Amino acid sequence: MDRPSTPPTLIYDQDCGLCIATAAWLARRVPRSRLDVVAIGEVEAQPTLATTLHDLPLAAALHFVRPDGSIWTGARAVLGAGLRVPRWRFVARALDHRVGHRLLEPVYRRIAANRRRIGRLLRLPAVCPMPARPGDR
User: Fold this and answer.
1) Which long-range contacts (CB under 8 A, 24 or more apart) does 128-133 make?
2) Total structural domains within the chain
3) Residue 133 covered by a domain
4) Does some domain include residue 128?
5) pTM
6) Which of the four pLDDT bands, split at 50, 70 and 90, describes residue 1?
7) Is there a contact between 39 and 26 (Cβ–Cβ < 8 Å)?
8) Sign of CA dihedral 112, 14, 10, 95
């Protein structure tokens, strides 16, 4: 089976401490060749992403852009990213089906609606730079 030439991309809110912490956690564990992690503010600098995501409410939910151009949002986006994380992919795989999506989506929506409050409670910074990824130069 041929591997896609471009990795899937997770779009996150760079003004949310919880989103930044999650994106940084992913960036430390998953090489860019398996998952690219891009802030909403950086989408316009990438023409393919900008075209694919044009006019979508990116701040409303996580967006996971698959190599074929299809887009998963919310809990399904979390699962898409989770499938790329070593030692966590078995959990994502176990929940990546219709029933799992229906169970996780309300949980995701509740967390997303309160993400800034959760970030403050966890004392996460609202803005911080992404760490360099292994192999980035």
Assistant:
1) 128/17, 128/20, 128/24, 130/20, 130/23, 130/24, 130/27, 130/37, 130/39, 131/24, 131/27, 131/28, 133/27, 133/28, 133/31, 133/32
2) 1
3) no
4) no
5) 0.84
6) very low
7) no
8) negative
The range of the structural domain enclosing residue 37 comes to 9-121
> In which residue are the tokens 């911080």 written?
128
CA–CA distance from 108 to each of 31, 64, 78, 122 (Å)?
Answer: 25, 14, 9, 17
pLDDT (tens digit per residue) in 9-67: 999 998 888 888 899 999 999 999 999 999 999 999 999 999 999 999 998 999 999 99
The contacts of residue 23 (CB under 8 Å, 6+ apart) are 10, 12, 37, 39, 130
Q: Which two tokens stand for residue 85?
A: 């994380």
37 token code pair: 């992690």
- Count the neighbouring beta carbons within 10 Å of the beta carbon of residue 7: 19
* CB-based contacts of 31, cutoff 8 Å, min separation 6: 133, 134, 135
Tokens of 93: 């795989």
Q: For residue 28, which of 90, 93, 96, 87 has the smallest C-alpha distance?
A: 87
| Residue that the structure tokens 């591997």 belong to | 3
